[in-house]
From TrEMBL:
Keywords: Metal-binding, Zinc. InterPro entries: Yippee (IPR034751), Yippee/Mis18/Cereblon (IPR004910), Yippee_fam (IPR039058). Pfam families: Yippee-Mis18. One of its GO terms (molecular function) is metal ion binding. Residues 13-110 form the Yippee domain. It comes from Apostasia shenzhenica. Belongs to the yippee family. Signal peptide: none annotated. It comes from the Eukaryota. This is Protein yippee-like. PANTHER family: PROTEIN YIPPEE-LIKE CG15309-RELATED (PTHR13848). The keyword Ubl conjugation does not apply. The lineage of its organism: Eukaryota, Viridiplantae, Streptophyta, Embryophyta, Tracheophyta.
Length: 111
């Protein structure tokens, strides 16, 4: 492994990877706090940083069929959530291109 470029977000309110503590998302990027992940509560973000995408797959979620990619911390490779690539139901289209971070896999820093 070479040196990894890590993007730092402006504070004060930043979510960090729980495992290696690199920045994951800014508080300002939250779209909704009312989501459910694999491990409980989850947040929807319009932008996250320092992640890599897993393979594209179709997944049946509580709100219907979606095409998603799991997202992994680019620093420690832990799975942090997923990205919505495509929603098949019109009412869910707003999620396309947005990201879920599992609350249990990120740390809040600065508040
Ligand atoms: Zn990490």
């Amino acid at each position: 492994m070479g040196l990894l470029f890590v993007e730092t977000l402006p504070g004060p309110k930043v979510f960090k990877c729980k495992f290696c503590k690199v920045d994951s998302a800014s508080h300002d990027a939250i779209v909704s706090k009312d989501f459910h992940g694999r491990y409980g509560r989850a947040y929807l973000f319009k932008k996250v940083v320092n992640i890599s995408l897993g393979p594209t797959e179709d997944r049946q979620l509580m709100t219907g069929l979606h095409t998603v990619n799991d997202i992994y911390c680019s620093s420690c490779q832990q799975m942090l959530g997923w990205r919505y690539e495509k929603a098949y139901c019109d009412s869910q289209k707003y999620k396309e291109g947005k990201y879920i971070l599992e609350k249990s896999r990120v740390l809040k820093e600065g508040w």
